[in-house]
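Chapter review. Work through the record for DNA-binding protein SMUBP-2 isoform X2 before attempting the end-of-chapter questions.
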Amino acid sequence: MGQDCQHCKKRYCFKHGLPEVHGCGEEIKRDERKKFLHPKPAKTIRQEEDVKNAKKRLDAKLKDMQVGRMQKATGGGSGGSKKKKGK
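Structure tokens for DNA-binding protein SMUBP-2 isoform X2:
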């Protein structure tokens, strides 16, 4: 049981889950201040979302292709070259 810190990506118990308690407080303040003083333009945010969506589509397509290859490998064993029996 516990929670993950979104900043340092570590897992802490509920008692130490807050960033200020386990030591990420100053870094988060610095990052939030930077985001407030220097916001990203809407176009940049849109482009980042487009890239993220494209990566999701690519991952889904690769997964589908891998599943298809696995099905061919397991189901296509009997179809191939046939040998003729001798007299």
